Amino acid sequence: MANASFALLPDRGVLAVSGPDRRPFLQGLVSNDVDKIGPAAARYAALLTAQGKYLYDFIMIEVGESLWLDAEALRLSELKNRLSIYRLRAKVVLAEKSELIMAAVFGKPAAAAFDLPDSPGAGRTFGGGVVFVDPRLASLGVRVILPRETARTILIDAGLVEETADVYDRLRLSLGIPDGSRDLVREKSILLESGFDELNGVDWQKGCYIGQELTARTKYRGLIKKRLMPVQIDGPAPFPGTIITADGREVGEMRSSRNELGLALLRIESVIRDKTLISGKALIRPVKPSWMHFDIGEAATD
Question: What are the residue boundaries of the structural domains of the chain, listed by start?
Answer without folding.
Answer: 5-180, 225-302
